[in-house]
Amino acid sequence: MDKRKALVTGIGGQDGSYLCEILLQNGYTVHGIIRNRTTSDYTTVAVSHVLAAAEKNQNKLVLHSGDIMDPYFLLSLFREHSFDEVYHLAAQSHVGTSFKLQLYTCDVNALGTLRLIQTILTLGLEKKTKFYNACSSETFGQTVKDYQDESTPLCPVSPYAAAKAFSYWITSSARITHGLFAVNGILFNHESPRRGLGFVTRKITFAIAQIHLGLRSCIMLGNLNARRDWGHARDYMQGAYSMMKQDAPDDYVLATGKTRSVRDFVVTAFQIVGIRLEWSGSGIDEVGVDARTGQVRVRVDPDLYRPAEVSYLRGSAQKAATSLDWKPEISFKELVKEMVEADIALIHEKPTRFWMESKL
Ligand code: NAP
Ligand code: F7E
């Protein structure tokens, strides 16, 4: 078993929580950065898994209260621990929000990555510490290609994607200039029951669970026709881990190779609770209706459209398949089913909890 020491930034997010489990299973001592919260407890599904893992693995999982915006915090953390591997996942990860919080998003997502790399270089750790950067398919933007891979030019259209493109280039620059083992994982959308409630998949599965339990009647959504390549977060974190196990650093796309619309996701998720949707109307007047009862279950809210949209994404993970022997294990239908069933169970378990309606 490996006795290596890894740092995961953003450990309390969806991906961080799965990666933490994978690293612990592989014998690592895991350190994670979690932001301090003064006004609420730690209640997201993802963070509850990390806290449970911390309780079970007392000396193997160490959580640090901190923020990647603070270079002095990073310096003292790295000076004390000199990590073997750093998985940099922390980000303002919501694309829609990035149009309203442009400077903040770029500060966290672009300069945050540079702060971490600069910390490694300042402490002379470039021959010891391997660095993983969580890059994104969103950087491909309004691409016209049928599929995107490592050779597709980056063409960001949101502040989120522009910041992630910077993180991509600054990571490859550190590899070329300083010989840092630095990897960009260019990951297409990946989801799970631990996804934040502001992302479209979880927004849908959580609302369907509420509808199923008679707690609400309808979901408000934005662009139903946007297409994404959706996989499962656990599969993708296994891929990220494999990238860091290679002899030489490189960049890899992780994707399923299949594209589906938001509408497809809604239809599939409603099927899990036995509701067949029929569509009528068009544009912002389109509605999704329960074919049996005639009740309106989906409406369009124009405020949920983005100022600029990435309409179509489909990835090719051929390179990861060949070099990492990676392929997604969990199918789209299994993913949707797991998410709907987990949300039904969650509401059953904590029926009185205050759930804020996602306006994202
Ligand atoms: P997530 O659930 O939003 O997790 C991001 C984590 O980063 C959160 O725990 C957040 O903490 C933390 N964070 C944000 N700002 C921070 C700061 N200044 N200092 C320290 N921690 C901070 O996102 P995810 O889905 O796990 O994604 C992980 C990474 O992969 C992100 O970089 C994302 O942009 C990227 N990515 C995700 C996907 C996807 O489909 N999931 C695809 C491609 C790339 P709080 O809980 O305190 O906000
Ligand atoms: O939107 C459309 C929306 O917010 C998906 C992040 O993890 O993946 C994620 O970014 C699509 C978009 O994810 C609603 O317009 C319709 O076309 O779930 P999302 P995203 O923007 O693709 C990438 C790869 C990342 O890197 C990011 O970190 O769904 N959509 N109606 C909606 N989206 C939201 N959020 N809410 C709606 O009501």
TrEMBL record:
Spell out the Gene3D superfamilies in the cross-references: NAD(P)-binding Rossmann-like Domain (3.40.50.720), UDP-galactose 4-epimerase, domain 1 (3.90.25.10)
Per its UniProt record, what Pfam families does this chain match? GDP_Man_Dehyd (PF16363)
**InterPro entries linked to this entry:** GDP_Man_deHydtase, NAD(P)-bd_dom, NAD(P)-bd_dom_sf
GO biological process terms held by the UniProt record: 'de novo' GDP-L-fucose biosynthetic process
Ranges of residues in domain NAD(P)-binding: 7-339
Cofactor dependence is on:
NADP(+)
UniProt keywords (A-Z) are:
Lyase
- GO MF term set: GDP-mannose 4,6-dehydratase activity
Instruction: Identify the domain of life.
Output: Eukaryota
Keyword Cell inner membrane among record annotations: no
Query: What EC designation does it have?
Result: 4.2.1.47
SUPFAM superfamilies in UniProt = NAD(P)-binding Rossmann-fold domains (SSF51735)
| Enzyme kind, highest EC tier | lyase
| PANTHER family per the UniProt record, alphabetical | GDP-MANNOSE 4,6 DEHYDRATASE (PTHR43715:SF1), GDP-MANNOSE 4,6-DEHYDRATASE (PTHR43715)
Query: NCBIfam families, alphabetically?
Result: gmd
Family, as annotated: Belongs to the NAD(P)-dependent epimerase/dehydratase family. GDP-mannose 4,6-dehydratase subfamily.
HAMAP family attached to this UniProt entry? GDP_Man_dehydratase (MF_00955)
Report what the protein is called: GDP-mannose 4,6-dehydratase
**Can you name the source organism?**
Aspergillus ruber (strain CBS 135680)
